[in-house]
Design brief:
The chain has 29 helices and eleven strands. It is an alpha+beta fold.
């Protein structure tokens, strides 16, 4: 048994708070383990109120599901929240939760929606439980109460309890509510890896401002190293708006602030973290106000354009802006990016860039700037209730195409779903799914990154009703990402003529797309129009698009299942997924698509595509090598 396990195996006769202090002080290097300590073995607890009470209650707990157990714990604790005798109430919380056989998970968030008639008494009870509690469920109740009622004086005690891995999440939530930078720092110290991030955390813990600033600049904000939540926690821990508001601010720090804002606005960590960042509007204001101090260049142009795209139609629209504030920030960014020095940045002007002087990644970025430079500053000619915008993010990071559905100027998916972005334009627009007909049709607008079966999806039924188009009968998860119940969504009605015009405009607008993406679309359209092209090879189209990490590569996915050509197939039989990859050769997209369709028509694609899915057993049965 390791020294840490020996310490964790001790059974305390004092509070969990004192026990955590003892473990921390015993660390030879002064640093607790990154994942925290295990909770000790449960305290036997007080004797039951009657000889038969504990066995009956414990048996009852075994017959309850998680929701029932949480309700039982809530019912046991709720009557004690207004008791002015804090010592007696704390003892009774211990007894009742022990008699119930309650576990930590049963009481977590059990009091979240409960009205607190006497806040002072409930706060005093919370403090008593976190400082003197000897059982994990009772201490969890205390943490829950301080998450709602805590004050700065409670921060030190909560930080110590956060050393237990089972308490980390609720403690961080409580600290975030009381002192957001401290909550973020505890989160970073528990959840981050990598030398640069650890250096930043150590500097923040030591309260060394210069080292913290140096550490902030050293953190690589590549999405594979720093996800959206980590970016938010960094911004909270360093108080980002303060750092860039205190003049003088240097250009590297200002650029890093912009990168953090861009990272938080992406949804590839299931939700848009910018919406969970309480100081986001202040950080945007501070950044945009000083944007002109950045030296003109390709990287800085990409940062400013990305921020503008988010302020124009991204999740940042949903922040608590003052009237006209967001629009003023966009005007400020437009004035910066149209200044002569910035207009000379490659891609910002009409001049061509010598391909011999740039890398493929730089050329993609330059071409993106050329396509997207005016998008966030262009107002629709005939604004209506519905607007569809296809936005391509900076190609320096993967997963860059978004279909943004805006109703009354507000982005729908991050506002009502926020478990993943809307589906691609190929799914929603190229297939005509958003068109309105007399026959109602349910459309999946977005799906959680982990699939609908795990965390759900957002569905709406679209139908035509006389001179109106109606979006109704919404389906989405019953709870919000925060855990609160999701309210019913309203029925949206649109003028049919304006709706049809907007959908037609969005379907035909390809100004956002690059050559490989256009070629992939034309290949998909050709194969949908002529399903016999693949059917003759016992195959059917899955999708066609561009490679996730290599946007100049066209990928065509198809499923091979014997029997398709003959009009019969065994759905339970063997099948394989193939992917055929083609490099953009620089010729027009129409020419590339025609050549690809000709090859698919004349040569079995299983001979030049690669197996990407199915099973080893199916590959062996169907005579193809398994990768």
């Amino acid at each position: 048994m390791s020294p840490q396990e020996e310490r964790a195996a001790l059974t305390p006769r004092t509070s969990l708070y004192a026990y955590a202090l003892r473990l921390r002080d015993a660390e030879p290097d002064g640093r607790p383990p990154r994942r925290g300590y295990r909770l000790p073995a449960p305290d036997p607890g007080p004797a039951p109120a009657s000889p038969s009470a504990a066995p009956a209650a414990t048996q009852q707990r075994g017959n309850l599901d998680r929701a029932g157990a949480r309700a039982a714990a809530t019912g046991a604790v709720a009557p004690l929240l207004s008791d002015p005798d804090t010592l007696r109430a704390a003892d009774e919380v211990h007894r009742r939760l022990h008699d119930l056989g309650a576990q930590v998970a049963d009481v977590r968030n059990a009091l979240a929606g409960l009205p607190l008639e006497d806040a002072a008494a409930a706060r005093a009870l919370g403090r008593r439980l976190v400082r003197t509690g000897t059982s994990a469920p009772a201490v969890s109740v205390g943490i829950d109460l301080l998450a709602r009622l805590g004050e700065p004086e409670d921060v030190a005690c909560l930080k110590v309890l956060g050393l237990f891995r089972s308490f980390a999440r609720p403690v961080i939530a409580a600290l975030t509510a009381i002192d957001c930078p401290t909550g973020a720092l505890v989160w970073l110290s528990r959840c981050t890896e990598g030398r640069e991030l650890r250096r930043l955390v150590d500097a923040l813990l030591a309260r060394d401002d210069q080292a913290a600033r140096d550490g902030l600049l050293a953190v690589p904000l590549d999405p594979r190293a720093v996800g959206s939540e980590t970016a938010r926690r960094i911004a909270e821990a360093v108080v980002l708006d303060d750092i860039i508001s205190n003049d003088p601010v240097d250009a590297p720090t200002l650029a890093q602030a912009g990168r953090l804002l861009v990272r938080m606005a992406r949804a590839n960590d299931y939700r848009h973290e910018i919406l969970a960042y309480d100081r986001a509007a202040a950080a945007y204001e501070a950044f945009v106000t000083r944007a002109s101090r950045l030296p003109p260049g390709l990287d800085h142009y990409a940062i400013l354009l990305s921020v503008a795209l988010d302020l124009h139609s991204g999740p940042s629209v949903l922040l608590g802006w003052r009237p006209g504030q967001r629009e003023a920030l966009l005007e400020s960014l437009e004035s910066v990016l149209t200044a002569p020095a910035w207009a000379a940045v490659p891609g910002a002007g009409p001049g061509l860039t010598d391909p011999g002087l740039t890398s493929p990644a730089e050329r993609r970025r330059i071409q993106w700037i050329r396509r997207a430079a005016r998008q966030p500053f262009t107002r629709p000619a005939a604004p209506g209730r519905l607007r569809i915008e296809v936005v391509v993010r900076d190609p320096a990071v993967p997963e860059c195409v978004e279909t943004r559905v805006l109703i009354d100027g507000r982005p729908l998916v991050p506002e009502v779903f926020d478990r993943g972005p809307a589906h691609s334009p190929e799914y929603l627009l190229d297939t005509g799914r958003l068109r309105a007909t007399a026959e109602p049709r349910e459309v999946q607008l977005a799906e959680a990154y982990c699939t609908e079966g795990c965390c759900g999806a957002l569905h709406v039924t679209i139908c035509r009703d006389g001179d109106q188009v109606v979006w109704r009968d919404w389906r989405r998860p019953r709870t919000l990402p925060s855990g609160r119940p999701a309210p019913e969504l309203p029925e949206y009605r649109f003028d049919a003529a304006a709706y049809d015009a907007e959908i037609a405009r969005a379907e035909t607008d390809r100004s956002w797309a690059w050559p490989a993406r256009n070629a992939a679309r034309l290949i998909a359209t050709g194969l949908r129009d002529r399903p016999d092209v693949l059917a003759r090879w016992d195959a059917r189209l899955d999708w066609a698009g561009t490679d996730f990490g290599e946007p100049d590569t066209i990928a065509v996915s198809f499923t091979f299942r014997p029997g398709i050509a003959a009009g019969r197939q065994d759905e339970d039989g063997h099948y394989l997924q193939f992917v055929w990859e083609l490099q953009d050769d620089g010729t027009p997209a129409e020419q590339q698509a025609a050549a690809a369709l000709h090859r698919l028509s004349t040569a079995d694609p299983k001979g030049y595509a690669h197996v990407r899915g199915g099973s080893r057993e199916s590959a062996e049965a169907l005579g193809h090598p398994w990768p």
